[in-house]
Amino acid sequence: MPWEKNEAAGGETSGRDARIAARAREENWKKPPRRIESAECITCDSCLRGCPAEFGAIFDRGLDVVIIPELCSGCPACVLECPVDCIYVDEDWTPTDESLWKHIELTADGA
Ligand code: SF4
Ligand code: SF4
């Protein structure tokens, strides 16, 4: 996998770019991704700011804030930031749809 080489070299941002390109989670991530319950979320963006840059898994789409499971390691720094505790483990996550990947590609560093 190309991103394994990047991680070994300390290129964590490259790892995120590779995940975006592959649209896939790291195979060695043991924890499931997280998801935001939109009915409870107050769209404060605290989680977005708390998600480590090497993951950059959270996006504010205007009407809601979402976690991209393919980019989320499940670390879970965002959970500590959320004032309303609406970020849950998502064992049954589904692949991110094409339109959202297009948006992510437009905002990705160095993509
Ligand atoms: S669990 Fe970690 S990687 Fe996933 S969205 Fe939260 S802070 Fe980001
Ligand atoms: S920190 Fe919690 S309430 Fe704020 S945007 Fe993130 S999920 Fe929503």
Question: What keyword list fits this structure?
Answer:
two-stranded antiparallel sheet; globular; binds iron/sulfur cluster; iron-sulfur; metal-binding; 4Fe-4S ferredoxin; 4Fe4S_Fe-S-bd
How would you sum up this structure, described in words?
Pfam families: Fer4_4. This is 4Fe-4S ferredoxin. Keywords: Iron, Iron-sulfur, Metal-binding. The structure is a single chain. This protein is an alpha+beta fold and 111 residues long. It has one domain: 2-Layer Sandwich (Alpha-Beta Plaits). It is built from 5 helices and 4 strands, in the order ααβαββαβα. The strands form 2 sheets. A two-stranded antiparallel sheet has the order 1-4. Strand 2 and strand 3 form a beta hairpin. The protein is globular. The two termini are 18 Å apart. The N terminus is likely disordered. The site of one iron/sulfur cluster (SF4) has 14 residues, from helix 4.
List the helices and strands and how they pair.
Elements: H1 2-8, H2 12-22, E1 34-36, H3 46-50, E2 58-60, E3 65-67, H4 77-81, E4 87-89, H5 98-107
Antiparallel strand pairs: 1-4, 2-3
Bound molecules: iron/sulfur cluster (SF4) (2 copies).
Protein name: 4Fe-4S ferredoxin
Domain 4Fe-4S ferredoxin-type: 32-61, 63-92
Keywords: Iron, Iron-sulfur, Metal-binding
